[in-house]
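Re: weekly structure request thread

Next one in the queue (230 aa):
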Amino acid sequence: MQLAFSTKNITRFIITVNLFLIFMHVGLHLLAHKFPVYVVHVAMSRFDANSEASVPTWFSEVQLLTVAVFLALIAYYKRSVQDAFARQWAGLAFIFLFLSMDEGASLHELIMDFTRDITGTLPGFLQLVWVVPFIPLVFIVFLAYWKFLKHLPAPVRRNFLIAGGLFVTGALVMEMVGAQINASGMPRRFSTIAIAIEEGLEMIGCAWFLITQIRYIRDYLPECVVKFIE
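Done, posted below.
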């Protein structure tokens, strides 16, 4: 039995929700700066993408987990047809499962504590020391998946790279920019802007990856247990 979903409707839903949450994050921060009243601050805290207990964080967890589930479905299908790259699909599923868990449980903070014990407090953009082991890890994963990327159809490969570039830019590059802003003592509004860009890039990158997966299943895996139609 196949479960059929509309690609167009799901894509529209994903884009709409992500843009709405980014807009709420930015809009409520600006509103709280202009009107520092209790109700506005409560609303801002619930839509603060940088807060652990907020709607955008919850949605990011769900979105990352959904990516992991679809990757696992693709991996299962690829294994059933003895595809040479089934393990790579499964590996991506585990990566996104970890990212989903990290979004909700802040696992990177444990890595930050462990890294700080080794390196001590680092200056400026490396102040959040968890990025130190993750930078080489990103390059290792990229090199390990190079053959996998080359085997993908050109449009899928291009969209995977765009999605990954957006996500990594938000999660690592903008995280370091934000750390540098805080370390240099710049006004808080610059930190707010950096956080908005960081979280926005992560959410858009994840959404881009999810939409690419949906279209990949629709166009290249017609016998998958989940079916997407126009």
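The first helix runs from residue 7 to 34. The chain has a mean pLDDT of 85.
Next request, please.
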